[in-house]
Amino acid sequence: MMEEIDTIVNKINANTLESSDLLSFSKNLENKINQGDIQASKDDVQWFQIYGFILKKLEIFEEGNPYDMRGSDWRNYLDSFDKLRSLTADMEEKNLIENPVWHVQDVSFYDIKNPELYREYVYFRTRNHIEKLKSLNPP
Prior knowledge:
mainly alpha; 6 helices; 2 strands; globular
């Protein structure tokens, strides 16, 4: 697991981290927790799901399809809509997004104001959470 953590950090440093990296990491983290191989919680898994998903939102935005997400996209990847709501409010407060709209089944749509700052925000949140995991699981 520590190797996966290092990979995530290296991709953040190289500005190459993708949503698929984080979504895969969250699944692997959940498995490692269930096996008792790592100190972490379901809460941690949920946060990495959310970081992966908001990064996916940026990738879709950069492809020119900012609203090409369906409710099933959110529900397939996220276990905690409360955390997503909290993070969306934080991003709006930090002026990274605008016009957030919540639809049926807690689907959120919003406009990304500055893709570079948005990415930095996702990377910052991810890196901080990775550091938390590392502190709970010293070598």
